[in-house]
């Protein structure tokens, strides 16, 4: 609890003065005002986070949190729970989509066991297990508040280590069979959106499976009472350990003035929890893509963010997050390297 408290105290508002300077420069560059759209908004946001006009995002780290979910016994996923362990092994052997995409953009990968059912031993795996999977949230609370806090603190620790090693931008992703169920429950709990509008087929449920998933989520929200103003209570009632870990990464990164690139539905649920705990974190969050999962747009709406990419993706692991990472460097190179109207001797249409 001490680590979490300290981290929350260290989260400060972003630097509005530097953002104004960035806006003024963007408006002097040789292009119609605002014509580079979201890239311009991104550059302005990043200067505010880093308190620097031309921050670097060359050193990229992507953190994948892995955990299991008791609720899979309700048939909410078409996939067997063992796939979590098999995929984490695949991550460690460089064979998954996230390995290929992270390598492509030059991001270092960190894989964290924060709550897998199986105990894997591997040098490259960061083992910070809170427990071997959550409880079945259709029967009882997913975890205790203490476990939720410990999982948040794992996220803070892992991201602080990455930042100490030089990370200038952090991506978040996850692996955990069944985790679109707690994610959808969190979205419903926080936004109040109708459950049937949020829930999707996850990794590939059929129509009957989606119907069952909706009922399981409704049951979990009725059964597990929580204080809807308390992000940690929501996390403990209907969340997941990897979701808590990612929320901790967001809080820890914000406390250190480092931007976090979100991924799909599950990282989005973590962002909603982090926002509930500390609303200021939204100013440190960078969206990436819009997932096929219907609840993802509800998340972006609640966060007030708009994604860059629409690639019909629905994988998770942080695949969308790493794909968006190069946009950070790109937006700053626009701000830094383009000529102004005065430098290029071009008539300024806005003057
Ligand atoms: C082989 C495989 C690799 C994955 N990588 C991410 N997920 C994604 O699917 C899971 C969530 O979907 P659901 O809630 O329907 O179980 C998570 O592990 C998520 O990361 C995968 C799923 C599978 C099958
Ligand atoms: O939106 C996602 O990231 C997602 C969707 C389905 C399954 N796994 C992840």
UniProtKB/TrEMBL annotation:
UniProt catalytic activity: 5,6-dimethylbenzimidazole + nicotinate beta-D-ribonucleotide = alpha-ribazole 5'-phosphate + nicotinate + H(+)
Recorded superkingdom: Bacteria
UniProt-listed InterPro entries: Nict_dMeBzImd_PRibTrfase, Nict_dMeBzImd_PRibTrfase_bact, Nict_dMeBzImd_PRibTrfase_N, Nict_dMeBzImd_PRibTrfase_sf
GO BP: any one term: cobalamin biosynthetic process
Pfam families: DBI_PRT
Xref: Gene3D superfamilies: 1.10.1610.10, 3.40.50.10210
One function term, GO molecular function aspect: nicotinate-nucleotide-dimethylbenzimidazole phosphoribosyltransferase activity
Active site positions, chain numbering: 317 (proton acceptor)
Keywords: Cobalamin biosynthesis, Glycosyltransferase, Transferase
EC number(s) on file: 2.4.2.21
PANTHER family for this protein: NICOTINATE-NUCLEOTIDE--DIMETHYLBENZIMIDAZOLE PHOSPHORIBOSYLTRANSFERASE (PTHR43463)
Function: Catalyzes the synthesis of alpha-ribazole-5'-phosphate from nicotinate mononucleotide (NAMN) and 5,6-dimethylbenzimidazole (DMB).
Protein name: Nicotinate-nucleotide--dimethylbenzimidazole phosphoribosyltransferase
Organism the protein comes from: Halanaerobium praevalens (strain ATCC 33744 / DSM 2228 / GSL)
Gene name of the encoded protein: cobT
């Amino acid at each position: 609890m001490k680590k979490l408290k300290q981290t929350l105290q260290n989260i400060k508002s972003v630097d509005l003065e530097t953002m104004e300077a960035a806006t003024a420069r963007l408006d002097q560059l040789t292009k119609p005002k605002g014509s580079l759209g979201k890239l311009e908004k991104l550059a302005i946001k990043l200067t505010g986070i880093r308190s620097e006009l031309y921050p670097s995002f060359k050193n990229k780290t992507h953190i994948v949190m892995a955990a299991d979910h008791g609720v899979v016994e309700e048939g909410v996923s078409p996939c067997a729970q063992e796939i979590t362990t098999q995929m984490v092994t695949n991550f460690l052997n460089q064979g998954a989509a996230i390995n290929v995409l992270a390598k492509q953009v030059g991001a270092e990968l960190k894989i964290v066991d924060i709550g897998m059912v199986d105990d894997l031993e591997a040098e490259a795996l960061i083992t910070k297990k809170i427990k071997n999977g959550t409880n079945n949230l259709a029967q009882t609370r997913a975890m205790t508040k203490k476990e939720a806090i410990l999982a948040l603190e794992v996220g803070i620790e892992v991201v602080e280590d990455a930042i100490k090693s030089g990370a200038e931008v952090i991506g978040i992703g996850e692996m955990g069979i069944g985790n679109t169920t707690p994610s959808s429950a969190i979205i419903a709990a926080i936004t109040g959106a109708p459950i049937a509008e949020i829930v999707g087929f996850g990794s590939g449920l059929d129509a009957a499976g989606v119907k069952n998933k909706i009922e399981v989520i409704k049951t979990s929200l009725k059964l597990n009472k929580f204080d809807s103003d308390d992000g940690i209570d929501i996390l403990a009632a209907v969340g997941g350990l990897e979701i808590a870990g990612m929320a901790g990464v967001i809080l820890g990164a914000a406390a250190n003035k480092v931007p976090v690139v979100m991924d799909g539905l599950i990282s989005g649920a973590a962002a909603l929890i982090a926002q509930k705990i500390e609303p200021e974190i939204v100013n440190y969050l960078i969206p990436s893509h819009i997932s096929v999962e219907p609840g993802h747009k509800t998340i972006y709406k609640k966060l007030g963010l708009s994604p860059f990419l629409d690639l019909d993706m629905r994988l998770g692991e942080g695949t969308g997050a790493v794909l968006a990472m190069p946009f950070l460097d790109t937006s700053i190179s626009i701000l830094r390297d383009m000529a102004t109207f005065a430098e290029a001797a071009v008539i300024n249409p806005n003057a």
